[in-house]
Design goal:
This protein has two helices and nine strands, in the order E-E-E-E-H-E-E-E-E-H-E. With 172 residues, the chain is of the alpha+beta class. The chain has a single domain, classed as Nucleoside Triphosphate Pyrophosphohydrolase. Strands 1, 2, 3, 4, 5, 6, 7, 8 and 9 form a nine-stranded mixed sheet that branches. A hairpin with a 2-residue loop joins strand 1 and strand 2.
Length: 172
Amino acid sequence: MAHIHDPIDFTVAVFVVQDSQVLVVHHRGLNKWLPLGGHIELHEDPEAAARREVREESGLEVELMGERPPTTGNGTRALLAPRFMDIHYISDTHEHIGMMYWARPKDGQLKLAAGEHHDIRWCSSLALDTLQPAMSEAVKWYCRKAIEEVDGCGVSRQKPETRRSGLAVLEP
């Protein structure tokens, strides 16, 4: 989606974790390895945007991780808080407020969104260091934190590996 606000847009980044690996994409337009994600559309809340972006970019349905406060009442719906938030530079006149979510796959078959990405793959913590072009240190930190917290296994020192999917990758 194009920018919908002049100075600031709201975005989601979803770190999907399975078997001590995180799902990342090589973004076609930015030439960067990133988590799944994108802009929150005007009619969406952050949770809906996170699920939609994952579905559109990977074909997977996910369970977002986190705590939902028990404050839902008449006319109110509590939302999952993002695990982290940031504000990042896009241009001299535009920034994004990013909401980072952790997730686990529930259903679906992994597929490449070839119009948006060169590649999609599951990466272990160590394999993040082998990606080309190199992933930013900030994104690697979030990836490793998601693996540690979702799988509860810490940042392991296993042999570097990447796999195209826990589910089959379907090329378009």
